[in-house]
Amino acid sequence: MVSDFRKKKLLHVFTSFFDRDGSGSIDKSDFGLAIDNIAKIRGWPVGGEKYKEIQTTLLQIWDGLQGRADVDKDGQVSVDEWISMWDDYAKNPGSPLEWQSQYCKFIFQLEDASGDGAIDGEEFSSVYSSFGLNKDDTLTAFKNMSKGKANVSWAEFQELWKEYFISEDPKAPGNFIFVFRTLYISPKPVTLIVAGKYQINKMVSDFKKKKLMYLFKIFFDADGSGTVTKKDFELSIQKIGKAKGWAPGDDKYKMAEKAMLDIWQGMQIKADLNKDGEISADEWISMWEDFAKDPSSPVDWQKYYCKAIFHIQDSSGDGAIDKEEFVSVHTSFGLSQEDSAKAFDKMANGKSSLTFEDFEKLWQEFFSSEDPNAPGNFIFGNLSF
């Protein structure tokens, strides 16, 4: 049996670094997205020598992961298969599979940007910030992981990496190697793992699940814990404030803070059915499926959420969102500038800006439409599902 604490750690790695499209499973396309993200970090052009090198390495890791974990041979690795594989590793961490050793070495070399055989705080932070994690959290994690040292060697990294996957001690330095931010809080039970899948309403189409899980992962589950809590909203406020240049205490920061926390309260009342203070993937999907049955009649917090998102993006306050404003907010959540700009173009359908009336229709369409080509699908910056 895997403890709740270790499940939470494993799910953090699954959702933050492997399931790049937020679909609830890992497949080859997730590795393609990871390759593009890493190339962007390092400034490697697509098709260049370094790009091809990292592409080869990551696809070898995918082949190894799939060969070991994809028990039902459906071409993807589910949460349950992921947990089971790492539980087997924990029984004999001195004998990792070839792909696990390759993955460990790859992560170290990726973070060691200078190539000096050690990782410092800035190198560590640079990589994890690119995956949408808060920079202050990444630096704090490095300090905890390195025990205050200026850098971490390859030998030290291997021990920390091993510790992450096997340790039951919340204070173990290895727990911070993937910036598992929820370690700073007392660990809660994981309610997201069931029979190998996210526990998701089976009546919802796969297409809509992918859209909803993308939104859940990228914009709501800010700490990658697998559930949405008040803390996630506080982290999102910080991201938005940073993107807009609003300091804590500024009038605009306080307005955004109030809006986001009001949204959290409304969402919690509607979605948190078991009253545990957090919203699971299943509760999230069920809530939006109820909305999709009558998208023209949203509950109060959903109306407020739509309006708040519009006003946060409308930096100029002119009553419309242009491409630059749209891109600014979405890149603050870890999306690429290029993809965000393309998403705006697809969503705006030739317009240079979107009014609130336009935005509201697109917002409703995102949550209710089954058409992959519907303009509303691009309202949260993603290009495909």
From TrEMBL:
It comes from the Eukaryota. SMART domains: EFh (SM00054). Residues 5-41, 99-134, 207-243, 270-294, 306-336 form the EF-hand domain. Coiled coil: none annotated. This is EF-hand domain-containing protein. InterPro entries: Centrin_CML-like, EF-hand-dom_pair, EF_Hand_1_Ca_BS, EF_hand_dom. The keyword Repeat applies. PROSITE patterns: EF_HAND_1, EF_HAND_2. It comes from Brenthis ino (lesser marbled fritillary). GO terms for molecular function: calcium ion binding. The keyword Calcium applies. Keywords: Calcium, Repeat.
